[in-house]
Amino acid sequence: MVTVKALVIGGGGSGSGAIGGGGGAGGYQYNSALTVTAQAYTITVGTGANAPAVSNNGNNGVDSTFSTITANGGGGGGYYPGDVGNDGLNGGSGGGGSVGDSTAGNGGTGSQGNDGGDGFDRVILKWTSGGGGGSSALGVDATTDASGNGGAGTSNSITGSAVVYAGGGGGGAFLGTAGNGGTGGGGDGNVGNGASFTGFSGTDGLGGGGGGAGNAATGGDGGSGVVIISYVTADFGTCTGGTKTTDGSNTVHTFTSSGTFTVVAGSSGWGGKIQGISPGKVNDRAKANIDKIQGVE
Question: H helices then E strands: how many in the chain?
Fold first, then answer.
């Protein structure tokens, strides 16, 4: 039995237009000991969600998959339709809720991250919305004066260097302060009135949520996800797929787009690698036992 480390990040949700909530980060899934066999595995890297037209909730990102692991796309942010603000959408991390005249939208639920922040009732014309959830922290709720920041992402060193993945998008605002994107690729929200005050996009390859927009503008796109696989080089043959790098005694495959990861067994095979005993040692012990049976000292 051989194992790999696997990090799978879903595509980020888009922020919403029209004083919209921030998009939720793509789902964060990490397995430090995933069993693999010699075969070709299909890798799906989820794209970040494209932001819709102004008067719509943000869209959800696309799921990323490898073997038995699925990381869900992030939830889109809710938009401001008038009296009752729209809720953020559920996803890997939930989208932020929008402002409302009387009732603000709630943040969406995160299945593999955190919930988005809630919007705020419209008060003294500040009009503020919630931040999208991140893999390590909730999206921040809006206040009277400020839209919520996106939730923080999670640091992982599977490539050999620490990188933060899956941050939520910041909420958009009309006259208050826009929310900042969460660490890990979350896009900032924007503040203002007019089509130029679009939300900022999440970072590709990190699964960041897109930022919410100011009034009468579109939200930011979600960032695409990623699949990263690392294993002890000596345990495998020449495996293929993605961008291949090394980290000390490990080989790392990084997929920023969909593809195939082909697992190849080492030259001695894997049949003898049981309970930490290498095939060579198994063969030596077997020969010694046979010699004993045959009376050979």
Answer: 1, 11
Please tell me whether the overall predicted TM-score, pTM, comes out greater than 0.85 for this model: yes
Domain assignment present for residue 276? The answer is no
Nearest to 96 by CA among 212, 12, 180, 1: 212
Residue 7 belongs to some domain of the structure = yes
Yes or no: say if 229 and 4 are a contact pair by the CB < 8 Å rule: yes
pLDDT in tens, the chain (297 residues): 799 999 999 999 999 999 999 999 999 999 999 999 999 999 999 999 999 999 899 999 999 999 999 999 999 999 998 888 999 999 999 999 999 887 889 999 999 999 999 999 887 678 999 999 999 999 999 999 999 999 999 999 999 999 999 999 999 999 989 999 999 999 999 999 999 999 999 999 999 999 999 999 999 999 999 999 999 999 999 999 999 999 999 999 999 999 999 999 987 667 544 334 444 444 444 444 434 434 544
Nearest to 178 by CA among 157, 163, 194, 200: 200
279 within some domain: no
Q: Is residue 14 part of a domain?
A: yes
Position of tokens 């294993």? 231
Q: Where are the beta strands (DSSP E) in 105-220?
A: 154-156, 163-165
Domain that holds residue 226: 1-266
Distance CA 90, CA 153 (A): 17
Residue 19 DSSP SS3? coil
Count of domains for the chain: 1
Say whether 13 sits in a helix, a strand or coil: coil
